[in-house]
Structures are given as structure tokens and as C-alpha cells.
Amino acid sequence: MPTENDLTDKIKGLSNVGMAMSFLRFTSGGKSQKILHRLKYRNKPEIAEKLGKLYAQDLIEANFKNCWDLIVPVPLHPVKLLRRGYNQSEQFAKGLSEGLEVDYENALERKKFTETQTKKSRLQRMENVEDVFQISAEHSVANLRILLVDDVITTGATLCSCANVLLANGAKTVDLASIAAGK
């Protein structure tokens, strides 16, 4: 259930989001990790888009068809985007957008470059993404029901930091979704 699961438990107290859900369970050394590594480090953005389309079908079958007005991907810093050539979260959002028939927009931007989160503790991750995100100048999220998406939910720090910015800028609700999530 997207409103009562280990992901929602993980983010309690960090942000006032509604649902938290994930398409895959992340397992170190498992298939989900291999998929994510191909996506992020082997120049395979089409994987995220395909996963977004597949997940959209699951969400439709679970009666989540008309829950959101906008899908917003977690942004990469421009330096990281230039290095990788694409934002894997945006590609996932693109697939979800097509499948759910809901627009997606890059309504958030990173105002600071941050180090990778992979080796950080939960507290270090929260501190690392504090005051990192802002609403893009050309976007408004006021009164919108938003599905905020990322590639992986580990501690939830990044998504909660983004969700807090969206809520502070008038989003009606924010739900979270990812390609994969760890325990």
C-alpha cells in the first residue's frame, strides 16, 4: 500500500508527503542494481523511460490513473548533467508521463553542487541536500498534485528536500515514486 509501507515510514518527520512508492526493490548486487548501473553509468537513458512506462501501467491497474496534475523529476546539477548527458530521473518521469497521460516538467533546479550520497549516513545525506533545490523561475506548482520522481530512494533525504521546496511553493500535495528503493 503506497500510504503505509517501509518507504513512508522512512520519510516520516522529514516531509509532509502523501504516498511513497517504488517500482523495484533495490538489492545490492541484485538485478535492480545492475539495471540502475546500466542506466546511470552505461549511457542507457532508454531503460528509465521504459521502466516509467511499465510502472505507469502498474499504477493504472492499481487505480492511480488521475491522482496527479504534474510529474516532477529530481534535478541533476548542470555539471553532472553535462557529464552524464541526461538525467535518469527525467527519463523515468518521461515514461511515467506518457503512460499516465500527465505532463512532466523540470520545475526544480539544483542551486548547489553536492557530493554523491552513496557513502553517507542518513544524517549526512540530509545535511548534504539541505537548501540545495529551488523552483525554476519559469514554473509554478501552486495548487498542483505532484508526483515527484527519482531513480533510487535510499534514506529519502533528496526526495524529501525536493518535496519540501514544492510544498513551500504552494503544491497541493506531493507523492514520491522511484525506480528502486532500498530497505
> How do the strands line up in the largest sheet?
1-6-5-2
Please give the share of residues in helix.
Answer: 25-40%
- Runs in which pLDDT lies below 50 for 5 or more consecutive residues are none
Biggest sheet layout: 4 strands, parallel
* Number of separate helices: 7
Order of helices and strands: HEHHEHHEHEEHE
Label the overall shape. globular
CATH hierarchy, class: Alpha Beta
Number of strands: 6
CATH architecture: 3-Layer(aba) Sandwich
Percentage of residues in strands: 15-25%
Classification by helices and strands: alpha/beta
Domain count: 1
Could you give a short description of this structure?
InterPro entries: ComF/GntX_DNA_util-trans, PRTase-like, PRTase_dom. It is built from seven helices and six strands. By secondary structure, it is an alpha/beta fold.
